[in-house]
């Protein structure tokens, strides 16, 4: 899928990049209302499956979520990727529930003082004036819930991290990256997932949603296939890629996989008449030869149970 406004001149790209970087800077400074001017009046925001329409609705909801539980919410961008009129962000979301907070929040029995640290993803589509007209946000809600309720411990914040330098590359190189990214899920869908090993460096680093880090081509092949998603109950996944972005030596794939339930999942009996969809984003670092040296996936497995139990909405634009 290409951008609705496919423009590559330097001034436009710079404006999109500034907007993309400003969004989480405002969140970290507690100035969520300052994000309003970044959006079109009728912006559409798929916020973890809930569809928000209009600038005011987007800001009001974000303020309720962030300010409703955190005094110190911060978002640190790990990757900023811009391709034409589309931007993708991999970011680390951190915060500590307010000490006075008692009782449930968003249905969770929150443990005051239990730190949160998860990696999330956002895709923003811009119009010709470099205003955001569509946003897709993916938070790993299952992991977030586990940390907020004290069931699992948040990893420590690495204050020494710096975003990788991403020097610009030729259009021919970026076209090569796009072709290789498109081929990844095409190989999975055609039953040739093992061919994806050829596109990765031998020592490729692989990071899953749960922050588990592995190395090697076998781990990379499994990550691209979402092999572990669904705990073996959804083996025949079919992938549909949305936006595929290339920027310098970085790439991002916005994808959805769909599969029927073939075996029991979290106590829910197998029912092949039921099929689920899960959205994710895959972020990639490439070397000069165009081989993938690092792959990071962000997805939210909690949507599987939501769809099987029909307990809530899960929307795709």
UniProtKB/TrEMBL annotation:
Put simply, this protein is called Uncharacterized protein
Could you tell me which species this protein originates from? Saxophila tyrrhenica
């Amino acid at each position: 899928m290409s951008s609705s406004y496919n423009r590559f001149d330097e001034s436009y790209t710079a404006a999109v990049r500034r907007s993309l970087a400003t969004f989480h800077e405002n969140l970290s400074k507690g100035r969520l209302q300052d994000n309003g001017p970044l959006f079109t009046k009728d912006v559409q925001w798929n916020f973890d499956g809930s569809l928000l329409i209009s600038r005011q609705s987007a800001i009001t909801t974000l303020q309720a979520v962030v300010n409703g539980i955190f005094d110190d919410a911060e978002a640190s961008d790990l990757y900023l990727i811009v391709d034409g009129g589309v931007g993708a962000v991999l970011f680390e979301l951190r915060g500590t529930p307010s000490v006075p907070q008692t009782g449930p929040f968003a249905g969770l029995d929150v443990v005051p003082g239990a730190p949160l640290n998860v990696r999330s993803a956002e895709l923003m589509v811009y119009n010709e004036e470099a205003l955001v007209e569509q946003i897709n946000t993916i938070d790993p809600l299952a992991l977030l819930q586990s940390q907020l309720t004290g069931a699992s411990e948040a990893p420590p914040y690495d204050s020494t991290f710096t975003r990788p330098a991403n020097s610009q590359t030729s259009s021919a190189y970026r076209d090569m990256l796009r072709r290789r990214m498109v081929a990844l899920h095409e190989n999975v869908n055609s039953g040739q997932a093992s061919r994806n090993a050829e596109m990765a460096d031998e020592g490729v680093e692989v990071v899953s949603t749960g922050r588990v880090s592995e190395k090697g081509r076998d781990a990379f092949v499994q990550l691209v296939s979402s092999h572990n998603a669904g705990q073996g109950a959804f083996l025949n996944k079919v992938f549909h890629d949305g936006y595929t972005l290339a920027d310098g030596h970085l790439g991002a794939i916005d994808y959805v996989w769909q599969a029927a339930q073939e075996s029991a999942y979290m106590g829910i009996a197998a029912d092949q008449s039921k099929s689920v969809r899960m959205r994710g984003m895959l972020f990639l670092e490439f070397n000069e030869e165009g081989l993938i040296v690092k792959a990071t996936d962000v997805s939210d497995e909690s949507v599987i149970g939501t769809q099987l139990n029909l307990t809530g909405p899960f929307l795709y634009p």
